[in-house]
Amino acid sequence: MIIANLFKNRSTTLLVIMCLYVFFLPFRNSISSVIGFLLFLNFFFDKQVNLKAKFKILLENKIAILSISLYFLHIIGLLYTSNFKYAGLDLEIKLPLLIIPFVLFAEKELPKEAMEKVFRFFTFGNILAMVLCLIHAIYRFNIDHNSYVFFYNELTYFMHPSYFSMYLGFNVILIIQSITALTKDKHVNKKKISLLFILCTIFLIFITLLSSKAGILISGICFMIITIREIYKRKLHLLIYFTSILSILIFILLTNQNSTTTKRFAEVKNELITNKSKKSEEKKGSSDIRVEVWKATSQLIKNNYLFGVGTGDIKDELSKQYKKNNFKAGIELNYNCHNQYLQFTLISGILGGLILILILSLSFIYAYKSRNQILLLFVVLIALNMLMESMLETKAGVEFYAFFLPFLLKNKVKFEG
Q1: pLDDT score recorded for residue 204
Q2: Strands, E, within 90-249: which ranges?
Q3: Where are the extended beta strands (E) located within 310-395?
Q4: Where are the domains of the chain?
Q5: CB 162 within 8 A of CB 388
Q6: The pTM is what?
Q7: Mind listing the pLDDT tens digit for each residue in 398-407?
Q8: Comparing C-alpha atoms, which of 315, 337, 338, 342 is closest to residue 389?
Q9: pLDDT digit string (tens) for 274-295?
Q10: Using an 8 Å Cβ cutoff, are 67 and 97 in contact?
Q11: Four-point Cα dihedral 340, 346, 347, 352, nearest 10
Q12: C-alpha to C-alpha distance for 403 and 40, rounded to whole angstroms
């Protein structure tokens, strides 16, 4: 009966596909890619809205056109590239940047209940991924008897800690918005609110255990924005929770000097102090490495600012520049730009970087004008992460960004406090 309804009711089919897509996002496997392809196929099976009308909707949306053009810039970059093997891999990884916005921007706006279901499945996926990571860490702890398995790369089984921190950070935003909406209801469900508070706390603690400096700082910034908003709205119960959980997390970090999280922040302090006295070949800390990578990228952009180096040649050109700078860590580990704005500028020239900035700027302006707090915080989260990571060079970053930005822009339903 359920399967039959999926074929009869296209809206239900679309919702099921979207829920499955976001559920499998945290697991970084081919399942989400397959579901993304099903989402694309479903686009063409619509009896109510013909393809001509859908293309018209796309052409009338500036952010949709800009989003899709990012992928076409990479295709144009094939005209002046020599490493077609890497170019093909890059285009495959970034394919969701074309097909997901193409589909979601042309679809109808979802009702509130449907949008909440998508968020719920995303939460379920994150909970399951988190539980599996903890089970794996406990299993390893029973063998090694070393607490390092509960931190950073050792804790995350499915993706890099920075990306999982970003997923959980966004999920925290969704949970807080749900709590805010529930507190407005005359018939307040205290049990549900309590469970959401507990889940939010668990996610924040897990973000801390993931030990991603960028993840902790960016999640903290988003958290502070929400806290300031609650102060302004005089919501005392939420303010007490926010300040309490922040105090607990800071206390854990300050009192546990041996944890990986504390050590990683201590490393940043040491790197900043000794940075000027180090030569390029001596720099191995994550903050030092980023500075050297940005330096090499900037040098390349200076000589290729008009059209970039091409879709397939970016790795090769960076490697050459690392050798010129005698940056040994960059040569050995073949780092990307560690900054998405610089990455797109180096690939496609100044137009690539400007289009990405324009997409995020227009999205932020739209979110602010429409008072869409989830979209606004999502853009802040993404924009800040892109400063520290080339997040659209990996499957985990591409699929997250490609789905949720058009999804939040297209669906105006929001939890307002």
Answers
A1: 86
A2: none
A3: none
A4: 49-108+283-417, 118-277
A5: yes
A6: 0.88
A7: 999 999 999 9
A8: 338
A9: 555 555 554 555 677 888 999 9
A10: yes
A11: 70
A12: 12
